[in-house]
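Q: Can I see a sequence and its folded structure?
A: Here is a first one.
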Amino acid sequence: MATEAKKIKVTLTRSVLGRPENQRKVVRALGLRKTNHTVEHADTPIIRGMLNAVKHLLTIEEA
């Protein structure tokens, strides 16, 4: 019996226009395309690190 990993809902709430290229790449790698686009990810250390890099552009909530 496998346990389900926690999920995180991530919403892009601020635009990536005028942001450094590395932040744009992180947002794109998270699967976010437009402002107010929401995606769901597993709560892993890799995803948490990506979220921490651009947390000023995102809204993060537990799913």
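Q: Show me another, different protein.
A: A second, unrelated one:
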Amino acid sequence: MLKYPFSLTLLLGILISGCQPDRQKPLDGRFRAVLTTPGGPLPFWMDFRPAGEKLSLVIRNGEESIEVPEITRKDNDLTIMMPVFDSHFDLTYRHDSLVGFWQNSARGHDYRIPFYAVKDSGSRFAGKPLEPAVDITGRWSVTFVDMDNDTTLAIGEFEQDSATLTGTFLTPTGDYRYLEGRVKGDSMFLSCFDGAHAFLFTALIPNESIMMGKFWSGKHWEESWVAQRNDSARLPDPYELTYIKDGYDGLAFRFPDLDSNMVSLSDDQYRNKVVIVQIMGSWCPNCKDETAFLADYYREHSTGDLKIIALAFEKAKTFKKASRNVARLRDQYRAGYDFLIAGPANKKEAVKKLPMLNHVLSYPTTIFIDKAGNVRKIHTGFSGPATGAPYDQFKREFEEMVGMLLEE
């Protein structure tokens, strides 16, 4: 006869449960998330919180907070769908850590990057802390050199608080959004993850006036870059890069909306109106930022005399999938204006669809049309809220331009 049946039963239960996977173990707190890229660990923050029977997630990059509401959990397996962008995580939760893959379907079904995350509220870039040897706060003139030795001029804007570093890069076609990282000794590290782009920047800082670095985007792109401190650095005028070619009267197009109804700029609903045409894509973070701005502006200033049309050039292979992706972006920002599916996300193809333009240099590109149907201005690229002063300048110019056109 067993002398202590209750204690033995309890012990066996503990041993057996220890060999079984945890069932719905609470997932809560800050995690240091890492994508394993060719350039090295690419970190960002994930904040999990219980929300009733569901789970909430916020991804953080500097001042940016990305709420992620679509999370499916079965036992300790999770699928996390990124809002707006066509990407997701397939993860398993064990012992306060997450492991799995991030898949960016916009780049193909085989575009997967290994991922892990551990509970951590320390430094975004782990490792031995080193006192910064230099403060890189300020404006820098930057030259990127890609894998084909083509160069792109840019501006770096950084703010350093002790070892903590935030900032972004501005280019003629847009900005690199919210970057966050650290300065360690004579090196700097910056990263961001927003569901579409996974960016990693590193650099050596020989002195207070120069940086020499590398840039990786996910697992598919790598560039070198060099920067010199330059408080007066400027980019080309974004209103002079794209224009209507000689021989064309103005802008004209006819594309299907998200319900397959054909829509033309010459339709009655746009005649004698101020029309803003947004060349964009649902896969494009700069386009997301501009859509957020345009949606807010349209809600606050919408009158019968103002119309906005988004021409979406998409990476999805089918019209159905492209429409679904664009609808997610539209619904995310409650954008009350028109969205059309214009074609594939290829700049050469975009020019074929819009042959009156000298080129489509950037997604987004914004075209201002007056009530008489004349193209008055074309703005290439978009400097979003991560850029600070350039974003404020764009908003002022936009409001002045639209206000003037409405009064004519």
